[in-house]
Amino acid sequence: MADVTVIRAAGGVAWRPAAGGAAGLPAAGGGPVDGRVDLAGGVEVCLVHRPRYGDWSLPKGKLEPGEHPLLAAVREVAEETDVRAVPQVRLPSSTYHSEGRPKVVDYWSMRAVGDGGFLPGTEVDDVRWLPVDAATELVSYPHDAEVLRAFAALPPVTGTVALVRHAHAGSRGTWSGPDTARPLDATGWAQARTLARLVAVLRPVRLLSASARRCVQTLHPLAELLDLPIEVDRTLNEPEPGQQRVEQALAAAARLTELAASGAPAVVCSQGKVIPPALAQLTGRADDFGTDKGGGWLLAFTADGLLPPDRL
């Protein structure tokens, strides 16, 4: 029997402060995203009505060939609702059958930061912003209700950081100069460009790097894309000779916490001997935080600390 191809899709729970209303959103492409939002009045989430199916659901859609699910989620929310949103927390994925095939939909919680003005179309003819309880009652499918309940259980996010490992830089053994000067190779530059397109959807306002050349170069495409400077921060370096790994991990974890506390999204590039122990310190868990070169994590912080890291 031939293998059945799984349909991959992605979407989001786009939210805004309830007191803001539609007029409370800045125009599309607005200024920096500050995580410090007054949620005293609660939040509203966005649902779409699809005339083809006569249903109310969360905005979502199929991945394009080779597209990362996070990019697809942001794109689909924008296409279906005309809302520009910034991902914060991965939510549970939904698995069900569609058109006789298994379908997996990945979801993220997304803070709405811009609204271009919704116009009804053949795919989506109505959009509603509702309190979470009302949205949970209105959605047509149990799997959407489950995602909304998971969203409702989240504590408020106070800051987000994308923590990435430097891209490929050849072999340490074949490089004759100081290891800190080892540059990205062709594969690494391709990884850096791909990474830039991915983490740009987080709308970072700060870029920080360990001092190694390969770390700084990994952020170059993102810096050019966003017209931001790269700040070199030695607390993100691998341990110096004589320095204990746990000491460096504590310093890196403290730096990540400090960045998140500012409320301004940041991208941090560090090294393979720093990221796993720093995440272990932040989570208090000995999970597998090994990170591929050119890979990374989406970190969402709350008043009580770090939520489970989302592997990018």
From TrEMBL:
Protein name from the UniProt record: NUDIX hydrolase
PROSITE patterns named in the record: NUDIX, NUDIX_BOX
Presence of the UniProt keyword Cytoplasm in the record: no
UniProt feature coiled coil, ranges: none
CDD domains: HP_PGM_like, NUDIX_Ap6A_hydrolase
Domain (Nudix hydrolase) ranges: 14-152
Pfam families assigned: His_Phos_1, NUDIX
Keywords: Hydrolase
MF-aspect GO terms: hydrolase activity
Record bears the keyword Flavoprotein: no
